[in-house]
Amino acid sequence: MKKQRQGIKRHLLLMVTLPTVILSIFILVFGAFLFYHFYCDSIRDELVSTTNMMVDCLDMTVRGDYQYQDGMLFKGDMNVTDSTMLYRVKEKSNIDTSIFWNNIRVITTVEDKDGVSAAGTTAEKSVTDVVLGGGQDYFCDHVRVNDTEYIGYYKALKNDDGSVVGMVFAGKKRSIVYYKILRILAWFLGFSVVAVMVAVFCTKRYSAGVITDINTINHFLQTIADGTLGETLDERIRQRRDELGDIGIYADKMRSNLQKLVEMDALTSLYNRRSGNRMMGVLVEQKAVYTAVMCDIDFFKRVNDTYGHAAGDQVLIEVSAAIRDSVGEEGFASRWGGEEFLAIYCMEMPEAKEHVEALQEKIRELVIRYGESEIQVTMTFGIAESEPAESYEKVVKRADEKLYIGKNGGRDQIVT
Length: 416
Prior knowledge:
3 domains; 15 strands
């Protein structure tokens, strides 16, 4: 038993820690994805503001069209090839900027790892097709400049007549974004490790009580497997507000349903023949007075042949309900076989006969609707009252004999 409990503990630890670890990994990966796109959106706003600011500064500094002569960029009569503004932007925000004439960088803060400027290099074709070709702004979270990956934004540089003559670029190195994401994920990773440790500790503390309740449920299920259906589950298990409590409740429901399955007829919800015999045996042991009524639906095969077996099942269900209502709390009813039923009234024959007469009339008036069909049936009844020290088999036999007298004598009658 001790070895078994240790095994359960290990399973409980795995059940708690493994999902925690998997969830942590999932959140790390998914979180990195979300953080990256969050930063991309944030950086996009920065880059849009930067490019707009640069274009506005150039427009406010001097009026006139852009021209490129002798390696210098002019706006009107002013040479604007000075990169001071660009380096101030980089100093304040870690944003690299470039000004293009057509697709060539003429002013830029972009440098390779050796400090060589990217001036004179060209933009990617996918960029120039959109910005120079279509006059539209372009954003991409994967731009390669001088073998360095950037999150970049390009804005068209236009003359007064609306013609596109160049571009303004603002970009932030992707490595900066990666660094920020890794810092956040490192904190979360530390939190995940602590969470796993706490989960292991709590599981060990919690497992002792859980194992006790598991063993209780296990014993309960063993009694069901052994055929003992009268035992009930410890109320403490049923009151648990967790999965074990649910398992206990479902196990108890299973016991109850199995008991019904053993004792009840699945279609009609009446007792089955086995249970009927057992309950009559109890009446005999108690030396109780009872009246046995064997009853049979007249011409039931005709119902099946005319309307189908599903309709026949519906007839059995509704007739059974009428028999059950007739017996009430003063006896019980069971399906004896096919369309034949046994009703036991715990009373003497004269009183029982009154109940049967009312039942016969109720069956006559019963209209059973199946689809577009309305089905009516009648029943024949054979009644026998018990005698002192008489076995229930003899009582049932006498009632059955009277039933067949009624069946042979025209049906839809009560024979006593």
